[in-house]
Write a structure and sequence with these properties.
Shape: globular
Helix content: 25-40%
Strand order of the largest sheet: 2-1-3-4-6-5
Largest sheet: 6 strands, parallel
Oligomer: single chain
Radius of gyration: 25 Å
Amino acid sequence: MENFSVILTYRLLYQTVQVCKAHGVENVILCPGSRSAPLALSFMRFEGIKHYVIPDERSAAYTALGMARQSKKPVALVCTSGTAALNFAPAVAEAFFSEIPLVVFTADRPAEWLGQADNQAIYQEHIYGKHVKADYVFPTDIQHPDSEWYAIRITNEALNTAMRHPRGPVHVNVPLREPFYLDNEPDFTEIEAKIIKFEQGEKLVPDGIFESLSQYKKVLVVAGTHRPNAKLKQALSEACKGKDIVFFPDITSNLIHTPGSISFAELVIDSISKEEIEEFVPELVISFGGPIVSKTLKNFLKHKNIKAHWHLNGHPASADTFQQLTNILDVNASTFFKGLAAERNTCFNKDYFDSWASLDTKAAQSAKTAIESLPFSEIHAAYEIINSLPSHTVLHLGNSLPVRYASVFPFMNPDIEVYSNRGTSGIDGTVSAAAGQSMVDDRNHILIVGDLGFMYDSNGLWNNYLRDNLKIIVLNNHGGGIFRTLPGARFQKELEEYFAVKQPLNFEHIALQHNCEYIFCNNLDGLKPALDQLLETKGKPAILELEFDKLISIEDVKKMMVRF
């Protein structure tokens, strides 16, 4: 005879999955385990949500993050009890600071068995601390109808919370008693779970804001990490060109080379003398989006003579990155700049705009000349790769040097989408996140990653769902190359052993182990044929390893640039 409690468990979990589907969940990643079997099987047997089984929890969570980032929809994650939940933590933190919606379901032992030397039992409630927007705990015993109602209600709340601005991860801990399996599967299809949706309307520009804006003549707009948005790009272009606004797009803003923008901002700032810098300091900074890569730009925007800083699409805890924040506006950037472009009587200092634009053009040409004169090196290779990528490619940039190369020297097609794990800026999860995005999108996804970042997350290739649109370029300088360029670390006697972690490895066997096409190149003449082979590979993912023996830093290139 079927155990009544296990029937109630599966009945509840069927409705839990229904709620997930109703709130936009289309993909779930399941990490194998016993305690989580009722959760996993409920997702696997539910039509309408695609499931992926990935054994490594750390990689699985970053894969889910990539899926959610690409689809702009919440992705569910499921793991068993114990340390499996802790292995989700790096990706949960990245999702929190990158405002990416994940719904993390962790199976758990009943509370009375915690601390009793039971298997796979740790303290899972609030396990992610401040790195989730909210966390919830299912009732352990669900015989009473109120318990089922409560569990469904908090599942709705979790999904609404994950998707409400600012988006982010939520945690649902699910204690489960044995038995975990049904002898005969009941038909739950006639059950309809209660759905509770949070409805949000379009936020309007606050009254009088453009009148306040008109008191400033030198206005600088800076965009941090942001999802691609065609309407925003159009509104910004019209505002920049029509209003003489200086606009700095970060490499991860997906607004690089917007008409009228200053895309080589770091090089321009570096070229301005101390005597001239005051002329370029804005009166007002307007920001939107997430973090920016350039430390040079951050320091410039901390200048004491900046009068005000407005942040768009903000919330009460919006970051004060430049220590100048004066106003947080609850309006999205697209609406704001569309309204500004339509304002007939608002315009800013044309000479200020022209000064920036002139230097931006000169910086781009000077940088191009300097880089093209370099021997085979990481910077030259990154330039050739990014500059040659076709339209509608999705580019993923590893942390440390790859994202910095692209940030300082953004020679690229403006139609290319750019992503990087800049919420926490760690090297973990780079391969997995790119793989996750490529699983739910048909375009080519190109990842440029350093050798340490690639090795650290090589388990991102350990799953059965990789597609041939995933193309990985490994910049192998045999260690953490960024430390060989940093003023402090580079002069320490422990540089190679501790900071750079010098390693002698190549990656052919990793590629073969995971059924990936392997391509190798260590000279400039072979770079274009190798790139062509990478992009043309069909039927399996491809890995291009570029090996370097020359160290040329960003600062070296800046010194080579002609004074402009």
